[in-house]
Amino acid sequence: MSKISKFFKGGGSAASKGRGGPSPQEALARLRETEEMLSKKQEYLETRIERELAAARQHGTKNRRAALQALKRKKRYEKQLSQIDGTLSTIEFQREALENSHTNTEVLKNMGYAAQAMKKVHENMDLNKIDDLMQDITEQQDVAQEISEAISNRAAFGDEFDE
After folding, report:
1. Longest Cα separation, the chain
2. Among 88, 122, 128, 140, which has the minimal tally of Cβ within 10 Å of its Cβ?
3. Do 38 and 7 touch, CB atoms closer than 8 A?
4. 97-149 pLDDT, tens per residue?
5. Cβ–Cβ under 8 Å, residues 74 and 52
6. What residue spans carry the region label Disordered (predicted)?
7. 3-state SS record for the chain
8. What span, in angstroms and rounded, lies between the C-alpha atoms of 2 and 111?
9. Is the pTM of this model over 0.70?
10. CA distance 77 to 52
11. Cβ atoms within 10 A of the Cβ of 45, count?
């Protein structure tokens, strides 16, 4: 089955139809294929336009009817080319939107995964235990400070007399 008939008949893998729609990667691939097909058609039409213009010049005033027919075909090809340009713009916009949506989905999934990991890390922590631990640490730091001050004070062994 050709790419064009697959595109218009909705041909695709059975797995994507069973899930309720294509994956973002499948949709992006199909959009890129369509872009390529339309780009090739653009090139074809551009060459046809050039040929018709050359034919119109060749016939010039000698065969006016053939020249007019060539210009009419050229005009038709230009109209088709314009339609393809619009279609390509729409497809590019859709592809970019799909890529952004897929990126946002992945970011959201990863953020959920990180949230679950944080929850798992914090499940063994109790705020009351943490508060008690912080109070113990503060008390021990105060004791260490008192010891440090006591050691650092100069001892006045002969200065004080006990009467």
Report:
1. 141
2. 128
3. no
4. 999 999 999 999 999 999 999 999 888 888 888 899 999 999 999 999 999 98
5. yes
6. 1-26
7. CCHHHHHHHCCCCHHHHHHCCCCHHHHHHHHHHHHHHHHHHHHHHHHHHHHHHHHHHHHCCCCHHHHHHHHHHHHHHHHHHHHHHHHHHHHHHHHHHHHHHHHHHHHHHHHHHHHHHHHHHHCCCCHHHHHHHHHHHHHHHHHHHHHHHHHHCCCCCCCCCCC
8. 41
9. no
10. 9
11. 19
The Cα–Cα gap between 77 and 103 comes to 38
Q: Give CA separation, 56 vs 43, 44, 59, 73, 117, in Å.
A: 20, 18, 5, 10, 72
Quick one: which of 41, 45, 66, 46 has its CA closest to 56?
A: 66
Tokens matching residue 144: 């260490």
Residue pair 42/81 in contact (Cβ under 8 Å)? The answer is: yes
pLDDT digits (tens, 9 = 90+) for 58-110: 988 889 999 999 999 999 999 999 999 999 999 999 999 999 999 999 999 99
**What tokens were used for 46?**
């551009």
Indicate the residue type of 111. M
